[in-house]
Amino acid sequence: MTFLLISWEDVSMSHPMRREVPVSMTVSTSPSSSFSLSPSLWGRSTVGGMAFGTRERLAFMDVADLEPSDYGDLPSYNEVMLQHRSERVPLWTENGEGQDGKISRQDVVKSVRNIQLALLRLQDCKQLAKDYEWDKLADTLNEQIFRTDLYRSCYVLKRADNFLTPESRDVVGFDWGSCAWRHCGALADAQEAIDELEHLLGVLEPFECLFCIDIVERSLRDIFDVTTEYHDTTLQIPAYQPLQRMSDVNEESSMDGFDTEFMDTLAFLRNSAS
After folding, report:
1. Cα dihedral: 148, 153, 155, 156 (round 10)
2. What is the three-class DSSP state of 255?
3. E strands of 113-214, at which residues?
């Protein structure tokens, strides 16, 4: 039974299940009852919630006391997974542009170049974070180089068996949330940091934004370091500058006014506890 459940989950997560019949749920708008999703047939009630999609979400907004501007464009889990299965999963096995549909050296070079371009664009992100330019930073994080180009490039490198060693391809890894029991790798780390930064823009302080950007940069540099043979030499990638910790900032430039004596005492107490 366990094997059958695992197999069914694998199939359902890899292949979109297109609905060819009308929506099986109706929204109750009766004033005497609270909002509910009522199945048209009793048998469907056991799986009714699994059909919650775009139409159900819009119907929910019509009768629920919620601000459409806040929740109207928030996709349901089913919508997210449908996009994942119908768009992202096929990219994992998408043929390259080389002969016989196989990944060619040109595919690898193009993908590595996208990694280099993303690294260069991150330098602009750092300055935008320092200047509190949240709107511009949000726009930059949603540019194609950090989304489609980055994903596609990593998918190509992950499958470039004839050009990269297994160790190098393991560095690239899988999508964030799609690793299962496997080592995730640099792509997942970069995706998670980008999403967290975008979600919390305007809440995080500049040095906190720089921390997230630093994670993205180190992740991309990991890929950059294992693909040296395919670098575009016309793109000059600046040397990595380690992120300065707040505890390393001296008293004159400290944003929080921590003095050296306080930090020394804190370090002493931490070492004593260990």
Report:
1. 140
2. coil
3. none
